[in-house]
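Researcher: Let's do a round of design. I'm pasting the structure tokens now; please hold your answer until I've finished.
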């Protein structure tokens, strides 16, 4: 395997593989910071205004395997060592696979030479890895470090890059529908929207979309509603999707997706988890978070109300700060079908998932983790403030700390939480 280059396994310019800047920084910050002047471990007291370059220029304690000993290295060097180790592991894995493909054992037999890359390349590995680290970090070196781990509207990210053909119940404005789907016959009805889908038989009839539409100010307000599961014993789950399109352009200005959860009488958190597990991972995550947020009130809230959970809620950047999101939510809540059992609505808000990327959260220093929670706290306070002022047509509202569950929707994380709930209420 002398033809397998070790150095080519390092990420290069424009590589589609290898770690990102946040991966490298999180790896470095998972080590203890060392203060050379004090000759002691000394974590930063704050990461406010600290740049990526400043953080990686700090010294850190680097353990030497399982020897119990350690050395002090700058963050850039630790990041380079991480890249070098990844490349060496990849080289060994590919070498084993190549030997197996040739009919040889993965590792040489006793007495044969050990597998090793080209010595000249091995000598260059760490220096070349340091060059790679610099190329990965350079574009963000002067950025505040905290921005690597925040996702709150960072980089002009918008949730509403919607595929027109994929909107629920074909919410596509007529002018934007695929031409092949339009009925050009003479008998086409002039009325283009069916309020709440009470007429017609097809859930996805392009010519009769299950939607309600009217002009409100400079926007067309479009809304659909349908039952996800028409009947599961006595439980119900519906979805409402509301959109403001700019009049004349049909550009989406804001959108909100609401999940309407109505369950049979429950007596414990375990009951709620069991019921919502029949629906979806998203609803199950809601149940798991609600058991923490509502605690002893959980049964009362879910027994007495139809819970309206904000599943997606976004406003395009030009309209942010204008109150458009609240206005859209108000219009959508006013037009929800009346619950047949007469239960009032309880609005459930989970703001935090859009604030902090959880991928590296546990690796980061405690003070940085707390500072990363700040946007969620600010948003929580902001939402509480406008909920009190906006007079939304709901009987009550509550928040659930969804960001606590780093593995939202993941089988492993949910299984552990379910086990804990079941055990606590056994």
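Researcher: That's everything. Go ahead.
Model: Designed sequence:
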């Amino acid at each position: 395997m002398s033809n397998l280059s070790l150095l080519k396994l390092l990420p290069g310019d424009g590589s589609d593989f290898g770690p990102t800047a946040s991966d490298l920084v999180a790896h470095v910050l998972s080590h203890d910071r060392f203060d050379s002047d004090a000759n002691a471990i000394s974590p930063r007291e704050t990461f406010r205004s600290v740049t990526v370059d400043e953080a990686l220029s700090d010294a850190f304690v680097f353990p030497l395997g399982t020897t119990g000993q350690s050395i002090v290295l700058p963050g850039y060097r630790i990041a380079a060592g991480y890249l070098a180790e990844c490349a060496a592991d990849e080289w060994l894995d590919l070498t084993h696979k190549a030997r197996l493909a040739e009919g040889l054992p993965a590792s040489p037999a006793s007495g044969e030479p050990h597998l090793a890359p080209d010595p000249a390349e091995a000598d260059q590995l760490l220096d070349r890895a340091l060059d790679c680290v610099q190329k990965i970090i350079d574009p963000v070196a002067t950025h505040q470090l905290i921005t690597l781990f925040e996702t709150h509207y960072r980089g002009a990210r918008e949730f509403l890059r919607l595929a027109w053909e994929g909107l629920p119940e074909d919410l596509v404005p007529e002018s934007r529908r695929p031409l092949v789907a339009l009925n050009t016959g003479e008998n086409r009805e002039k009325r283009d929207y069916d309020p709440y889908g009470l007429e017609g038989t097809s859930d996805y009839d392009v010519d009769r979309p299950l939607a309600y539409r009217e002009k409100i100010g400079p926007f067309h307000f479009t809304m659909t509603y349908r039952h996800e599961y028409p009947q599961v014993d006595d439980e119900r789950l519906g979805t409402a999707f509301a959109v403001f399109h700019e009049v004349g352009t049909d550009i989406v200005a804001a959108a909100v997706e609401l999940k309407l959860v109505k369950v049979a009488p429950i007596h414990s958190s375990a009951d709620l988890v069991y019921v919502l597990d029949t629906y979806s991972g998203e609803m199950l995550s809601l149940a798991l978070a609600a058991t923490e947020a509502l605690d002893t009130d959980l049964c009362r809230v879910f027994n007495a109300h139809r819970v309206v959970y904000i599943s997606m809620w976004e406003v395009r950047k030009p309209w942010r700060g204008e109150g458009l999101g609240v206005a859209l939510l108000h219009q959508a809540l006013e037009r929800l079908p009346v619950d047949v059992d007469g239960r009032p609505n309880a609005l459930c808000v989970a703001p935090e998932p859009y604030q902090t990327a959880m991928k590296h959260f546990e690796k980061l220093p405690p003070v940085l983790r707390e500072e990363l929670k700040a946007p969620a706290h600010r948003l929580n306070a902001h939402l509480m403030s406008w909920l009190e002022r906006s007079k939304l047509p709901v009987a009550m509202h509550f928040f659930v700390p969804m960001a606590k569950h780093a593995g939202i929707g993941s089988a492993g994380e949910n299984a552990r939480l379910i086990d804990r709930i079941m055990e606590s209420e056994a």
